[in-house]
Amino acid sequence: MESVSSATESATGNATDSGGAAPFPSAPSPDQRPGLDWRIRFLLLALVWGLSFLFVKVSGEAFAPLQVALGRVAFGAVALLVVLVVKRDTLPRRPALWLHLAVAGFLLNALPFTLFAYSEQRITSALAGICNATTPLFTLLVAMTALPSERPNRNRLAGMAIGFLGVLVVFGIWNGADVGDPLGAGLALTAALSMGAGWVYVRRFLTDSGHSSVSLSAAQLTAGAVELALVTPFLTSFPHAFPLAQSLSLLTLGTVGTGIAFLIQYGLVRDAGATVASMVTYLVPIISTVAGVIVLGETLNWHQPVGAVVILAGAALSQRKTPSK
C-alpha cells in the first residue's frame, strides 16, 4: 500500500504504508527511545499490513464494502486519537490545513479502502495484496507528473517499465487477463493509484505544517471517517447481525492495521531510517499471499507470484539512486 527510498522518498516524504494510514512519520522526537528491536518491529509491521488484506476479506463476509472502509478508518482514527490524548498533543485547528487533510484522507484512506473492500468481493485477498505492491510505482508516476522537482531518470523509467510489465504478468495477459475477475483487479490497482496520488498530495501540501505526525495522521483519519460516514448510511443497509469473527476482523483491521501500524512505522523510520522502513513493502505481498492461501484456502495461478516479484523488482529499481557523475 498502501514505500520510501530515494526516488519515492523524495516524491512523497513517506509512502511505506500499504494501508495509507500514516504519511507523516519523519519528525521524530529526540527523547524517544525504541522498545523492541527495530528488526522485530520491521517484521511485525510487515505482518500487520500483510494480514490486513485477509481482515478485509473476512470483514466483507458480514459487512458491505463501504461499511468495511468506514469501520477501518473510524477504528484507526479512534486509536490515534487515544494516542494523541496520552501524548497531550492536539489536532490541527487551521481550516485551510483541515481542507488539505480532507483531500489526503480521501485519497489515502476513504477511496482506496473502499476500492480494496469492493475488489476483495471479486478477487482473492492474495491478489489484492499483490496489486497493492504497485503503489510505489504509481507514487513515482504521479510525482514525476505533478512535481517539477521530480524528474525522470534512467532508473525511474526502467523501474516503472519493469513494474508495470509485472502487472501484465500478474494478469496473465497472454491468457486473456487470467485473474478471475478483471474488474476486481482493476479496482485494487485503482486503489493503489489513489494512494500514490495521495502521497504526492501530502508531499505538496502537508509537509512542514508545524504539527506532529500523530496529530496530522489522526486528523487525516478523522477526516476520512467523516467522509465515509456521510455517504455510507445512504448507500448501504444497517447490518442485520454482527458475527464475532467478522466484527473482530474489522476491529483489528482498524485499530491495529490502520492505527497502531502507524506508530510502529513511525518508530521504525525514526530508529532504522526511511530506506530500511521502505523494505516492508517487499514483504507485504508475500505475507498477504501466504495468509490467503493457508488461512482462507485461496488459490493462485503460477504467474501471479511471479508477476509480484517482477513488480517489486521494478519498484526497487525505480527507487535506486542514479550515481552522480
Describe the secondary structure blueprint for this structure.
Elements: H1 6-12, H2 38-59, H3 65-86, H4 95-119, H5 125-132, H6 135-146, H7 154-171, H8 182-205, H9 213-235, H10 244-272, H11 274-278, H12 280-296, H13 303-318
Helix pairs in contact: 1-6, 2-5, 2-10, 2-12, 3-4, 3-9, 3-10, 4-8, 4-9, 5-8, 5-12, 6-8, 7-13, 9-10
Protein name: Permease of the drug/metabolite transporter (DMT) superfamily
Biased composition (Polar residues): 1-17
InterPro entries: AA-Vitamin_Transporters, EamA_dom, EmrE-like
Instruction: List segments where confidence is low: pLDDT < 50 over at least 5 consecutive residues.
Output: 1-17, 25-34
Oligomer: single chain
What's the Cα radius of gyration? 18 Å
Shape: globular
The helix/strand series, from N terminus to C terminus, equals HHHHHHHHHHHHH
Number of helices: 13
Query: What's the number of structural domains?
Result: 1
Q: Please indicate the percent range of residues in DSSP E strands (runs of 2 or more).
A: under 5%
The biggest beta sheet reads:
none
State the share of residues found in helices, binned by percent. Answer: over 70%
The overall average pLDDT, rounded, is: 86
Distance between the termini: 33 Å
Derived structural class: mainly alpha
- The total strand number stands at 0
Short description:
The chain is an all-alpha fold.
Keywords:
mainly alpha; 70% helix; 0% strand; disordered N terminus
